Structures are given as C-alpha cells and as structure tokens.
Amino acid sequence: MKKVTLNGSFPMVRAAVMGPVVRALDASGAQCDTLLEEFGMSRKLLSNPYEILPLTRYVAAFERAAEVLGESALGLRLGSELQLTELGPAGLVFLSSPTLNAAMRKFVLALASWQNTTTCELLRDDEWPIWTYQIASPQIWPRRQDAEYSLSTMCHMVRLVRGAAWNPVEVHFEHAAPADLKPYARIFRVPVRFQQPFNGLILRPQDLDASLKSADTQMARMMERHATDLIARDAMPHSIAEQVRDLVTRRLAHEKLIVADIAKDLGLSHRSLQRHLAQEGTSVRQIVREERQRSVEGLLEREELTNAAIARAVGYADATVLWRATRSWKKNSA
C-alpha cells in the first residue's frame, strides 16, 4: 500500500488547474470573467500556472461553472480531455514512469507540488488494487466536479500509456448518484457506484506491472526533482498569523482582502481566525498594513515605477490613497 496525505497549512492548488474550466467557459460564450471575479480570480492571476489558489475557491468555481454551462458532467468531460502539462510535474512523472505501479506511486508524491490537503492512495492489499482520491477537508463540499474530474483524468492518463481500449474494473464516487448516468458509461465503460467511502478506480493486478512504452528515466527524475523543489519552495508556514501573512502577500494586488474570505480560505470561521490571531498578538488588519508597507518600501526603490503603479501593486485605489498611507506610516514610526 502507498498512502500519502498531501497536507499543507491551508488548502491550496496551482492556478494551472483552472485552465480546462476557463477554456470550457470561453468555448460556450459564457461570462468567464464574471465567474472568475465571483471567486476572487482573474485571467491575469491565472496567467501564471504556478500561482497558488485557495482550494476552496477552485472547487466552488468548478461547481459554479457546471451550473453556468448547464453541464452536470463537466468534470467528467474535462478530465477525459486533459492536457498533462496542466498537472505540472505530476503529469509528466506519470507519463515517463516504467510501469503503471510506479506511475501511480510517483504521481501521488509529485501531486503534492500541485495540490495539498488531499489524500491519494494506491492500495494493493486486497485482490483488486484500488487508486483513490479524496479532498481531506470535509468542509469543502459540494465537490462532485473535482472528484469526477480527478477520476476521469486518471482514467484518461492510464489510457494514454496503456492504450485507448483500457478500462478499470469498477469506479467509485463519494457523492450521490445523479439522474443521468450516461456520461459515466461513456467515459468509464464499466460499472460505477455512488455514495462510497472514497472516490476510486478499481484496477486489475496485471495492469500495475505492465511496462509502459512512454517510459523515460531521465524525464521522470527531472520531474520528480522539480516537484520536490516546488514543494520546498512553496511550503506553507504553520502558525495562523504566518499563514495569513503568506496569503495576504500572494493576494495583495489581485483582490480586496476581506477577513471572512481569508478565514474561509484557511478553513476557519471568521471568529476562530480572529481568536487565533489575537492569541498571537496581531490581526488581519495589522498584517495587511504591515505587508503593504513592506511591499511599498521595496517598490519605491524601483525608479521606473510611478506612484499610481505602486498603489495598484499593493491594492490601493490610486496614488492619493498611497500618499495618505505612507504619511501615516511615517507619523506612527516617528
């Protein structure tokens, strides 16, 4: 058995995972920018595939996109059309591994560089091996689209390395069965069970041991190293104040910082967040002020930037608001 819980300080995912959702919205002519704004995102923010997003927002945006498009099986379809690069090093590690067993094992480890607070398991204890996927936080619900996208994606990846005719033995989902089961039959081509303890693909033992023609030892090593570097680089701090500071720093220029939103992104209630920060002798307002001041001081050293550009970079409406803030900082430090 190989079990890995992709833990971090708060639930996060890389911006690249929003690529399929954005393309689906654009292809349909839906108001993609409006939907992104609803969940604190923008095309500019998503243009960096390594940008960190709160997992709660991604899951909720995925659910909302399915509603907007009137496509309840959106996650199933997008998983079957996946571009492996949108899974970062995890996708390429999978593709370049020598066997399906190694591919799934290394994929689980590398996925921690792309998404955390998620439990992935490759169970080989029983007669039938099982690959499972489940967001660890029960508060992130509903999450049907993410679950169906993830299992459809894994099925798609296995078919890329084993052939388009490959099928799992059975498919399990944690959510209730929808009214229309035809999309599941079309994607998986095997029995699908709902309201199970986990989301998973049941496999044949011989599936795991077969050699993969796409194996590339050098590529696998490079992508494993890349994943390790990303995990180390973006390791989240442990104290609540440090987590808030990290999140504020990442979001400062992209959105209005609201205490309730920050609490939700960290998986806490508004009151719980305030209590934790008070115990650490700080508050969201104080952290935002400190991070703005630190950022402004650094940006002022860049001669090519106007005051208006600096104001926008730290989330101020205009240069006048920036001027008032800097005057207040100087007054308080005197």
Indicate the proportion of strand residues: 5-15%
**Helical residue percent band:** 40-55%
**CATH topology assignment of the largest domain:** H-NOX domain
Number of strands: 8
- Measured between the Cα atoms of the first and last residue, the distance is 61 Å
Judging by the overall fold, what is the CATH architecture of the largest domain? Alpha-Beta Complex
Strand order of the largest sheet: 1-4-5-8-6-7
Order of helices and strands: EEHHHEHHHHEEHEHEEHHHHHHHH
Q: How do the helices and strands line up, and which of them pair or pack?
A:
Elements: E1 2-6, E2 12-14, H1 19-28, H2 32-38, H3 43-46, E3 52-54, H4 55-69, H5 74-80, H6 89-96, H7 100-111, E4 118-123, E5 130-135, H8 144-162, E6 170-172, H9 182-188, E7 192-193, E8 199-202, H10 205-209, H11 217-233, H12 240-251, H13 259-265, H14 270-279, H15 284-299, H16 307-313, H17 319-333
Parallel strand pairs: 6-7
Antiparallel strand pairs: 1-4, 2-3, 4-5, 5-8, 6-8
